[in-house]
Amino acid sequence: MATNEWTKSKGIENNDENVLQKHVMFFDRNKDGIIYPSETFQGFRAIGCGYLLSIIAAIFINVGLSRKTRRGKSFSLCFPIEVKNIHMSKHGSDSRVYDERGRFVQTKFEEIFVKYARTHPDALTSDELNKFLKSNREPKDFAGWLASFTEWKILYLLCKDENGLLKKDVVRAAYDGSLFERMTNEKESKKEA
């Protein structure tokens, strides 16, 4: 089944309307519209994360997002995440690059680099990333602070270049999900070499 047919059959928008769904679809390893912790683990391993980080990410992400994406359904110890409802899991203290429906907001994305990329206009240093994260903190939103910190620090650790810069095109690819396929392909290429 082609990706467009699959996404339509699962109630997933496959256009620029819901980029947040595209961001998480990489982790739906069996393409059934549901992401289980084992799939989150496999996705993190596929992009080059170690076992410990992959286990922690799978637990943290699935436990944190499952209930939010399954409103009105009974609790499940399998902690599934429903891709079609991923927009319901947005947390506070974020960049607001995804709107409440999961759409990509270009102006908010550009704002990150206009406001915080002082050393290089198309990249963030570790210090600039920290300033960005602090500026997005909502009062007493400790869960949102932790979620944003974790997301961005993992992205920085995995994707910074040799000069310690997190490039704008890499961040954009993380938002639309294309980064994960690229990282998987790069990992596979290194294995073959």
From TrEMBL:
**InterPro entries assigned to the protein according to its UniProt record, in alphabetical order:** Caleosin-related, EF-hand-dom_pair
Q: Name one Pfam family in it.
A: Caleosin
Tell me the superkingdom of the source: Eukaryota
A molecular function annotated in GO for this UniProt entry is:
monooxygenase activity
Keywords assigned by UniProt? Answer: Membrane, Transmembrane, Transmembrane helix
Q: Where are the transmembrane segments?
A: 44-65
Q: SUPFAM superfamilies attached here?
A: EF-hand (SSF47473)
Assigned protein family: Belongs to the caleosin family.
This protein's name: Probable peroxygenase 4
